[in-house]
Each structure stands twice: as C-alpha cells, then as structure tokens.
Design brief:
The protein has 20 helices and 15 strands. The protein is α/β, with parallel strands linked by helices. The chain has a 5-stranded parallel beta sheet with strand order 7-6-5-11-12, with helices on both faces. Strand 11, helix 12 and strand 12 form a beta-alpha-beta unit. Helix 2 packs across helix 3, helix 5 crosses helix 14 and helix 6 crosses helix 7.
Length: 554
C-alpha cells in the first residue's frame, strides 16, 4: 500500500534526523500516516512532529520542516510539504497514479489482497440460532456480518472456516419438543394443550400439521405415552427447522463449512474433558448444591453456575466445552463469534472461561450485533403481513431481494442499532445506495461492452493521457481498497466496505457525467477505457467481498 510506503519514508527521515543531530536519540513512536480530511492538504499526512515536540524541545512546525527536507525522492511522490502547526503532507505523483491503472488491470480480481494473516486459521461462528423457529431480521444481520468477514479475512491472508453451532440440547429443546408434540396431536384431531413455556408462533402450527401429514401415526406413537414420542418427533422437527434455516440463509448467500451439534459435546466426551480441566485448575467449586465457575478469580464481579442443582448443565457450561473444542482440540489460532444483542453480558465471562482453559482470551473476539428496526418510510413495521406474526428473514428477502439485505445490514457498524427502510431498499433511483452502486458497475460494463462491439482494442492505451481531475480522483479512490480491507480486517468492521463502495461509485459517476469515454480521439478513448476497466475491477471486488452481485446490465 502506498500509505505504508509513505510511513517507511517518514521512518527513514526520522532515523536520518537523529543521526544528524536534528532530533534527540530516543525511541520514537511509530509514524501514523493518515488521509487528510481536506484534499488541498495532500493525499497523506503525518502528525508525528506534534507528538515529538515536547520531548525534543523543538517547535512542531520546525520538526515538520526538518523531516520534510529529509524525505528522499520517491516515484510515488510529487511533493512533500511541512504545514503548520506540525504536519508533513504528501502529494502523490500524477505519473505514478496513472501507472496504477495498468497495475490494477494486471492484478485483476486479486486487487486489494493483503497478507496480514500469513495463513493463520480463523474460525467464524455466527447465526447459531436455536433450531426452534425461523430466522428473524436480527439473525439476518448477524448472518451477513459473519459471512462478509468470511470473505474479507481470506483477502487479508487468513484461512477461514465458518461454523453454525446447533443448540440441540437443553431446556429450550425440551420446550420445543413438547410444543411440537402438542401441535402434532392437535393436527391429528386429538386434544392437547400447549406447554406453559412452549413456542406459540404460527410456524409451530404449520410444523405440527406438516409432521402429521408426513407421519400420521409415527409407528403408533401418536397414541403412546408422551415421553416415548417426544424424542423421535422432536428430532424430526429439529431436522425440518434446520432445513428451513439452511434455505433461508442460502437466500442471502450464506452457507457454512461446518454445522456443529451441541449434543456431540456430550456424546464425544468434550464436555467432560473441559470440566475436568477447569476442576484441575481450581476454577470449579460446589455451592448451594450446584457447580460454579469461579469467575471472580479472573476479575469478574460474580461467579457463574455451570451445573444446576438438578444436575443439568447451563448453556454457559456447554459454551465452555464448545470453546475448549475450538481452541484445544481443533487448534484454531483465533475464534470470532458473532452474537446477538442479548448476549452482550455473556462476553466477559466467556473470555474469563477461555482464560481458565489456559488460552489467551485475546484469541477470542466477539462481535455483538445490535437490533434492527424495519420501516416503510416513517412507519415502523412490527409484524408480518403474511402471518400477522414475527417478521422473518425470508419475509424481508422476498420483498426487497438479497443484495439490498446484505448492503443495508452491512451499512452500520455492528454495535449500532439500525433502521432498515424497506421502501428505500426497493427504490430504483440514486437515493437507494444499493441501486446507486450496482448501477455504477452496470454502467462500467456497458461502456466496455460498447467498446467491444465496436472492435476497440484498448490494451495498448496510454494511461499518461489521463490528466483530468476527475480521472485522477477515480484512480485515487481505487487505490484506497487495500487500506479499506486492512481497516475492516484489523477491527472486524465490515461496514467500511459499503461506505467505500459508495465513494468509489460516486467517483466514477462524477467522472462519467463530466467526460465522454468513447470519442473521436482514439488515443484518449483507449486510455479512458483502461480507466473504466480498472474501475470495474475495483468495484466488482468490493461487491464480491460484500457477497453482492456485480450486474452487467440494469
């Protein structure tokens, strides 16, 4: 990245200044190189002189002036300027910028890729909804966040595996089994009451009816005692719900490498091994008839129950076993969990448990996805038009499409609550950011298709003819993609991608509105066709990282 090249030149200038006695011999902070908010200040700037002034006893502007004078000539730079109160500003060379058009075309769809991860294995676990009901809109946001990270991290040099953790054990599954059994019997015309803790959504009536049609007698178990039928009917219901979850996720382009069963933690002994490790390390204690994890020994405010007095493990206990499996048995270098807003309080105790297992808690990173409010303009949408019940992810995808779902879910940082305007998402106008970005790609494709139909070969186009401000602005915008990938990867913030896509689309639309690409000037036409082709590479890569289509026509 050119930003890193600038940072290296600053480091070299600092070292030379120290050798010449222009700066004191001391360990100095890393130079932070950023993009100035105002374009007239250059392409990049460092505020390092402001940080050095007090310790050096030298005015910051004087330090900036000394460092600017020591920056050696570089092909990437046109000029280096000291600016008050203590900045060094860098302006990129136009000739170098022009050559980057050819460089982007040569790189192709690998443009923007980095090697931050050096092949480190990362597991991303997301969605992981209990298979007791359909996915709702909030689940969709987590699904898009996780699946975008799964596209983004390999672009930064990580080896990624995705996983859905199936909560198919515990009290919630028992409630689901009993609810399904009641709806099943009702569908068969037999009297049955829903359990007090049951799942009462309309989808359970449909599921009970479906089970009754497929298994009208279930080998006679419909007339058998309840306990005999719960397990077999419940398992069938879970399989159906998981099938529906898979189908709904596929609608928005989300698939998983692994589907991991919570039950397997008990069946394969991983739960016992994890608890034994905690016991040996002194992190378990018996109190009030229950088994507790001593979270307070690791800085938590209170200890947490892992096995109830009934002998039933809590979901925290199975989560500990699950993370033992991830880190110890499967050996992931880093684990990323995308959880819903209701799991916020679970984060610190999970990190404490990971630490108790002898694992650096920094290797566990948790993204908490906040709530989504659906709107139609000013009106808040609360229930499904179709069922009068919860609004499912499928409802939203059916109405607006997969790409708008992905873009809108990504458009805010995960820790921010968001409004999703269904009417805006369907609008085919520049006010809709999805339409605006995808239309830019369709426009780019249309220009190149037109050139191809005319038999134009622009491969030998001279990029030195690209001198207009809008052309240079477009090149500058393309070159920011590697920085966006790095920022989004390091901070696990995929919302930077849709913002970048909008900026890139704006730069292209501005160029296109002010300059014709195909003209009577053949050399200039070929140069601009190269610019268009490079822009399409950058925009298609960005859309691909977001899991969105790059349409050829609209």
């Amino acid at each position: 990245m050119v930003r890193d090249r600038v940072a290296e030149l600053v480091r070299q200038a600092v070292a030379q200044a120290q050798r010449q006695g222009l700066l004191p011999e001391a360990t100095l902070p890393e130079p932070l190189v950023e993009r100035p908010q105002k374009p007239e200040h250059g392409d990049y700037a460092t505020s390092l002189p402001l940080k050095l002034a007090r310790g050096a006893g030298i005015a910051p502007y004087e330090i900036a002036r000394r460092l600017a004078g020591l920056i050696p000539p570089a092909e990437e730079l046109d000029k280096v300027v000291a600016a008050p109160p203590g900045f060094v500003n860098f302006v990129l060379s136009q000739a170098w910028l022009q050559r980057q058009v050819d460089a982007i075309l040569a790189t192709g769809q690998a443009f923007g890729s980095l090697d931050l991860g050096h092949g480190q294995r990362i597991q991303i676990e997301f969605v992981s909804v209990n298979p007791t009901g359909p996915l709702h809109v909030g689940h969709g946001r987590g699904a898009v966040l996780g699946s975008t990270l799964a596209r983004l991290l390999p672009a930064a040099g990580y080896k990624v595996e995705t996983e859905y953790y199936i909560n198919d054990a515990g009290a919630q599954m028992t409630a689901f089994y009993r609810s399904l059994y009641a709806r099943y019997l009702q569908a068969l015309g037999q009297p049955a009451e829903m359990p007090a803790e049951g799942y009462v959504g309309a989808y359970m009536v449909d599921l009970g009816r479906e089970m009754a049609l497929k298994y009208p007698d279930l080998s006679g178990l419909a007339r058998a005692p309840e306990e005999q039928v719960l397990e077999s009917l419940g398992r069938l219901g879970v399989e159906r719900m998981l099938g529906q979850i898979r189908e709904d996720l596929k609608l928005i382009g989300v698939e998983f490498d692994n589907w991991f069963s919570e039950r397997s933690l008990f069946e394969k002994g991983q739960y016992e091994r994890a608890m034994a490790l905690l016991r040996e390390s002194g992190y378990l204690k018996e109190m009030e008839g229950a088994l507790w994890f001593v979270s307070t020994a690791l800085g938590e405010d209170k200890d947490n129950v892992v096995v109830r007095s009934t002998g039933v493990p809590t979901y925290f206990a199975t989560d500990i076993a699950y993370h033992y499996n991830k880190f110890v048995e499967r050996g992931y270098g880093q684990v990323i969990n995308v959880w819903g807003a209701d799991h916020l309080g679970h984060v610190p105790r999970m990190k404490a448990a990971v630490s108790a297992l002898g694992i650096d808690p920094e290797r566990l990173r948790v993204i908490v996805s906040q709530l989504v409010t659906l709107r139609r303009g000013e009106e808040v949408v609360r229930v499904s038009k179709r069922t009068g019940d919860i609004i499912t992810l499928r409802d939203v995808v059916d109405e607006v499409g997969a790409d708008p779902c992905r873009f809108f879910f990504l458009s805010r940082s995960a820790d921010s609550q968001m409004d999703f305007d269904l009417e805006l998402a369907k609008r085919q106008s520049p006010e809709n950011p999805v339409y605006y970005v995808q239309y830019a790609h369709a426009r780019l494709s249309g220009i190149l298709r037109n050139a191809q139909e005319r038999g134009m070969d622009y491969s030998a186009g001279d990029v030195a003819l690209l001198v207009q401000p809008e052309e240079m602005a477009l090149v500058r915008q393309m070159l920011l993609l590697p920085e966006v990938i790095e920022l989004a990867t390091r901070n696990l913030e995929p919302h930077h991608l849709p913002h970048y896509a909008m900026e890139l689309a704006t730069a292209f639309h501005t160029f296109y509105d002010r300059h014709r690409v195909i003209t009577e000037d053949q050399p200039l036409t070929k140069a601009r066709l190269k610019l268009v082709a490079a822009s399409r590479v950058a925009l298609a890569r960005t859309l691909g990282l977001m899991g969105m289509a790059a349409p050829e026509r609209m």
